[in-house]
Amino acid sequence: MPFAEILGHNQNIEVLKRSLLNGKTAHSYIFEGISGSGRKKTALSLIQALFCKVIPDDSCGVCPSCRKVSGGNHPDIHIVSPLPDKRDISVDQLRDLQHDLSLRPYEAPRKTCIIDPAERMNPSSANSLLKTLEEPPGNALIILITENSGTLLTTVRSRCQLIRFAPLSVENLTELLMKNGMSHDAAALVAPMCGGSLQKAVELNNEALIAHREDVLNRVSHLNINQISTVFNTTEELSGNREVTLELLDLLLSLYRDAVHIGAGNREIVNQSVRSAIESIAAKNSFRRNLELLERIYETRRDVQRNANTKLALDNLFMAMG
Ligand SMILES: [Zn+2]
Q1: Between 80 and 275, whose confidence is greater?
Q2: Distance 69 CA to ligand 1 centre (A)
Q3: Separation of 71 CA from ligand 1 center, angstroms?
Q4: What is the DSSP secondary-structure string of 63-123?
């Protein structure tokens, strides 16, 4: 896709466009960021722009070359990932890659490759790549995709230009989810829970899950400590395995952050679709109290992460909240 269609990462894209315009793209890049933040999309956009002859610092998106890149069948792009049943990227895969890069490009000005995720190269396969990284044959372009460049060999890092990708903002994620066909309310509910990763958002994009979240918000906003039994029933129903409990706590964090926002006189909140429930929490408790509860939810989340009993942790939290 053309750069214009990528959401966020404006600064990175500016840098890449400038290098395209000056004809000074690096030989080897590291694109570092959480998965789902747009690293691979941007890598493919860079390659598409490099190949497209219509626009000097971007791609047109419609010429035969652009269509091949976006269709995933351009013969001058080599993508290396671990084979289906393997943990690591093997030395053989990298040998194939180096052979391929040494051939003349079929139709593009240069050969290109993406290694994703680069941290899956073990030391011997990474070492076999060093010479190629330093002097790619035939002006080839190599892009390493990684969550953390610190896990790569120093000798690999020092041969590449590092570009960091921030997690996507909630606004950008919301927009992306709506582009993927989610309703505005659903997107606004899911986006804040994905830690800036579209991948996570897509995993969460499922109506049953959204309905579950709305249910949680409504229950929590109606918790009543005078009926202790309802507290325990609620935790019984809501606590599951650690993963589910952490997700629930993320949701509570998002809800109470909104309540604190409203308490501070701010109209802008994330969980628009349950605004009335949040307003009732903001009205029921003092601002200070909601801040305390927010802190309390953070603590509970930390405890659960450190293997605390999930049911017990939620019981204690909900008693405090009721
Ligand atoms: Zn084009």
Answers
A1: 80
A2: 9
A3: 13
A4: SHHHHHHHHT--TTEEEE---TT-SSBPHHHHHHHHHHHHSPPSSSSS-EEEETTGGGB-H
The model's pLDDT over 228-260, given as tens digits with 9 standing for 90+, comes to 556 666 666 666 677 778 877 888 888 888 889
- Please tell me the CATH superfamily of domain 3-164, with its number: P-loop containing nucleotide triphosphate hydrolases (3.40.50.300)
Q: Mark the residues whose beta carbon lies below 5 A from ion ligand 1.
A: 52, 54, 59-60, 63, 66
pLDDT of residue 180: 79
* Spacing, Cα 43 to ligand 1 middle (Å): 16
pLDDT(156) > 70 = yes
DSSP letter assigned to residue 150: G
In angstroms, what is the span from residue 4 Cα to ligand 1's centroid?
A: 13
Q: Does the predicted model carry a pTM greater than 0.85?
A: no
CA of 64 to the centre of ligand 1 (A): 7
- Report how far ligand 1's centroid is from the alpha carbon of 104 (Å): 21
- The structural domains of the chain, with segments of one domain joined by +, span 3-164, 206-321
Is 55 or 192 the better-scoring residue by pLDDT?
Answer: 55
Cα 210 to averaged position of ligand 1 atoms, centre (Å): 39
CATH number of the domain at 206-321, please?
1.20.272
Considering 117-126, 199-208, 213-222, the range whose residues carry the highest mean pLDDT is 117-126
What is the rounded CA–CA span in Å between residue 98 and residue 25? 20
Question: Is 75 in contact with 103 (CB distance < 8 Å)?
Answer: no
CA of 17 to the centre of ligand 1 (A): 15
Question: If you measure from the C-alpha of residue 65 to the centroid of ligand 1, how many angstroms do you get, rounded to a whole number?
Answer: 6
Burial of 43 from C-beta contacts in 10 A (0-12 / 13-18 / 19+): buried
| C-alpha of residue 30 to centroid of ligand 1, in Å | 25
Burial class of 49 by CB neighbour count within 10 A (0 to 12, 13 to 18, 19+): buried
